[in-house]
Design a protein that fits this description.
The strands form three sheets. Strands 2, 6, 7, 10, 12, 13, 14, 17 and 18 form a nine-stranded mixed β-sheet that branches. This protein starts with a helix and ends in a 12-residue tail after the last strand. With 247 residues, the protein is mainly beta. Strand 3 and strand 4 form a beta hairpin. The chain has two helices and 18 strands. It is elongated, with a radius of gyration of 22 Å. The structure holds 2-acetamido-2-deoxy-beta-D-glucopyranose (NAG) (3 copies). One 2-acetamido-2-deoxy-beta-D-glucopyranose binds next to loops.
Length: 247
């Protein structure tokens, strides 16, 4: 990075830049939003602890992520994804060494430079605790509780997905305690879901083997969103084949 850009960044990330705190758990996928629509002219750049990690401009040849932007720096490998419409940045499978300041710079030629700073911190949760929270093994007919592991912020929108199909949503409006059914909600869970509005926990009752799979929780905040995954495996009631024969 040359001296000129360094100076620009220092100016941008000074008093004027919006600062957003982002708290995640290891293994999460986090998306940092630009809140702009990329146009032909403007340029969006992302810096991590002052090294450039992503850039998108009107020229597709100048769009880059990670090592392409910052020669010899392999820190994110293929965990960065840049949305070409908005310039928003997704960091997948975040690790504790990814914490720090992510700086966004939006340059509109001969008009303005604006920016945001995302202060990303990683929850202090041990691998064993995380495993217990995110990997559930239950027997057919039982209930399972998927706990987000954090207190719900009042303005967050929490959306639960099963194999990428929306199950249910918890809105940020504290006056409304009603669960919102997703438009194309999966019928298989009809009358079997309960939500804890304090924590955002999802309880699935009377579980069956077809409920085995990957559950995702999306937590949408102002300026960013987090995707956290849970795996549920359901074992049949009987494991001796002869007792499993149904009439
Ligand atoms: C991008 O690069 C390719 C090959 O290097 C070149 O043919 C093309 O014209 C370039 N596109 C722009 C918009 O500069
Ligand atoms: C996430 O990263 C860890 C190492 O930090 C790795 O062991 C794990 O396999 C990765 N998970 C996915 C889904 O890529
Ligand atoms: C980022 O957040 C952490 C945890 O809240 C805090 O200790 C740290 O000072 C913050 N960094 C900046 C530059 O604001």
């Amino acid at each position: 990075m040359n001296y000129f850009w360094m100076t620009v960044i220092l100016l941008v990330t000074g008093a004027s830049a919006v600062k957003i705190d982002v708290s995640v758990m290891e293994g999460d996928s986090v998306t940092l939003y630009t809140d702009v629509t990329k146009t032909q002219d403007n340029k969006v750049q992302w810096y991590y602890n002052s090294g450039r990690i992503a850039r998108i401009t009107g020229d597709p040849n100048k769009t880059c992520t990670d090592v392409q932007c910052n020669e010899g720096n392999w820190r994110f490998r293929d965990r960065l994804h840049l949305d070409h419409q908005t310039g928003s940045l997704t960091i997948r499978n975040i690790t504790d060494t990814d914490s720090g300041l992510y700086k966004l710079q939006i340059i509109i030629p001969s008009s303005s430079i604006s920016g945001k700073i995302f202060n990303v911190t990683i929850h202090d949760v041990s691998a064993a605790e995380r495993n217990e929270m995110k990997r559930k093994s239950v027997k057919e007919g039982e209930s399972v509780t998927l706990d987000p592991g954090v207190m719900k912020n009042t303005n967050d929108l929490m959306t639960w997905y099963f194999n990428d199909i929306c199950m249910t949503e918890i809105t940020g409006d504290p006056r409304s305690s009603a669960d919102v059914q997703c438009e194309d909600a999966d019928e298989r869970f009809r009358d079997r879901l309960k939500l804890d509005h304090q924590t955002g926990s999802l309880i699935i009752t009377n579980i069956n083997t077809a409920d085995t799979g990957l559950y995702n929780l999306q937590i949408s905040s102002s300026g960013f969103s987090i995707m956290r995954s849970f795996s549920v495996s359901v074992t049949g009631e009987c494991n001796v084949i002869i007792h499993c024969l149904h009439p």
